[in-house]
Every structure is written in structure tokens, then in C-alpha cells.
């Protein structure tokens, strides 16, 4: 488990103090893919760099397993860092070295013998899907392939923790999805704990099981992804969730929908993540003498189930009974927008 207590980082800039990370507390369980999301300047990059002491904290402790990282001497820190891989937004590859040589680099530093090194490099190349490209130079690779090299290099010393600092932010959407799938695969295959920093909520949605939202150097909200997505508490979290659900636009549309669909009952159904909710609409149509007119909606999948909203119109003799049935289901929340 990773345990972070009272972490603080103050930079001094033109004789002014900038508090980048401010009394940050966080607990990450083994095997988590833990997402940290926040707007630019929230302190995410500083935070992730404090974990392996690429930045020295001003205050606080970072504990990984039974090692207090923040109290280690420089030489002990070097050894402890073999347990903490890191992936960067701009890959940070060595441009004059081939793919295989880039991946071998951390193994050379930790003194692994040549034969063992070559074997490990081949395993890693296979793992990240770069077979056949071992002799290419970074300049000859696509962005996604460069990041695969970055990931393989980060995994070279078989770390227990992988820190990803905006690992997909320089990539197009399709490549982002491939890299996220690779991270998920590695998490499952190797049981690796991943802390992933991002400003993109869809990255959190795709692969994280837990999320922390950062603002002004602090964690302002945290929890299981599905809980935070379905019941965001803070304004900043609501803004991030709206990136995915488009609920901002939805509010504007509701007035129009009410005018356009004046018959029957208009309902907003919020799906709360349980997989059981997926057949609710079809069950409704089977059980009651009604028509369901789906007017608007966005349902999306997370690691914890589906969530999102649907706006529907119920029409027919049993529309009230159908509405009552929906209200009794505890895997959804139902709000009556209009009842003719
Ligand atoms: N080396 C530094 N010296 C002075 N101030 C810094 C330094 N590094 C970061 N900061 C400041 O600390 C704050 C947090 O920056 P940080 O880069 O950690 O945020 P972020 O959430 O990662 O944002 P971004 O995604 O834009 O990098 C910002 O106000 C930034 O200007």
C-alpha cells in the first residue's frame, strides 16, 4: 500500500512562495489503478514527482509498503526507486539509442549482467507489443510506439509501482486507448499498482478503479470512480464529470424537450453504475402497456459498471404504473421533469 500523509511542496519563485502541493493525504491499495485528475496548475505533476522524490518535499511523508521513501538516504533512495517506475508525457527517451538499448538502460544502471539484460529486454519488448522494432531509433517510431518504449523502460527493473505523468496527453484518441489498454493489461498481468496523473476524465473512466480530484494543491474529493462519477460533490469534480456526460448542454435542452413533448410523462433516469440497470428499459416495456420514447441520453461504461442519464417519455395507459416501477428500482434514480 502507498500511504501519503501531509505532503507539501513550496517552490520559491522570484522571492515569492508558490505552494504547489498542500497538505495532501492519499492511500492507494496494492493493485489499484489510481487516477489523479485536476486542471492545469492544480499540482498534479509536482505531486507525482514527490512520490519518488524527483522533487524533494517541503513537508510530509510518502510510504510505499514498509519503506518510508521520504526518510531514505540518497543511496537507499536509488535502490528504492527500482521499485517505482515512471512514464512521462514526452517519453524522455534517449534519441541516440535504439528501442532495445533504451529499455536496457535502467538495467545497465542497476548492474544487471549482459545476458540477463538481453533476455529481460526481449521479454519487455514482447510485453509492450514492440516485437520487430527492437533496432529502431525513437525518431523512427510513432507516438504510441515511443510511449510503449517508455513503459517497457519503466518496467525493466520489475517495479511494484508505476507512476504515469500525463502518459497519454501527447497521443491521439485511438493511440491513447491502445496505451490505456496496455496499462490495464500490465496492471492485471503483473499485479502492478498504477498512479496515473491526467487532466482528461475519459482516461480515468476507461481504466481507473479509484480517483482523486486535485485543486490548489489539495485532494478535494476522492473515492471509487463510479461513486465520484455518479455523485460528484465538489464543483470542480462536477465540471470534470460534465466533460463526459455533457450535462451542461442537457440542462439547456430540457426546456426545449418539455415544449416539444407535452404528452405523457417526461423522466430523467440516472444510472448509478450497477450492471443490473442495463435491462431496465426492456423490462419496463415487457411488463407494462406503454411506449418508451427515448429523447436524449448518454450512458457510458466504467470499471465499476455503467453510468449516465437518459431522458425518456412514457406514453400509454399504464404510464403511471411504469413510472412507479422505475422509482422503486434502487439501481437508478428517477426525476419527473413533466407530467401532463
Ligand atoms: N520548479 C518550479 N518552480 C516554481 N514553481 C513551480 C515549479 N513547478 C511547478 N510550479 C508551480 O506549482 C504549481 C503546480 O504546478 P504543477 O505543474 O504541479 O501542476 P499540474 O497540475 O501538473 O499542471 P500542468 O498539467 O499544467 O503541469 C503551478 O503554480 C506551477 O507554476
UniProtKB/TrEMBL annotation:
Protein's UniProt name: Methionine ABC transporter ATP-binding protein
Residue ranges occupied by any ABC transporter domain in the UniProt entry: 2-241
Pfam families the record matches: ABC_tran, NIL
Keywords assigned: Amino-acid transport, ATP-binding, Cell membrane, Membrane, Nucleotide-binding, Translocase, Transport
Gene Ontology molecular function, alphabetical: ATP binding
Superkingdom as given in the UniProt entry: Bacteria
CDD domains: ABC_MetN_methionine_transporter
Organism lineage: Bacteria, Bacillati, Bacillota, Bacilli, Bacillales
SUPFAM superfamilies listed in its UniProt record: ACT-like (SSF55021), P-loop containing nucleoside triphosphate hydrolases (SSF52540)
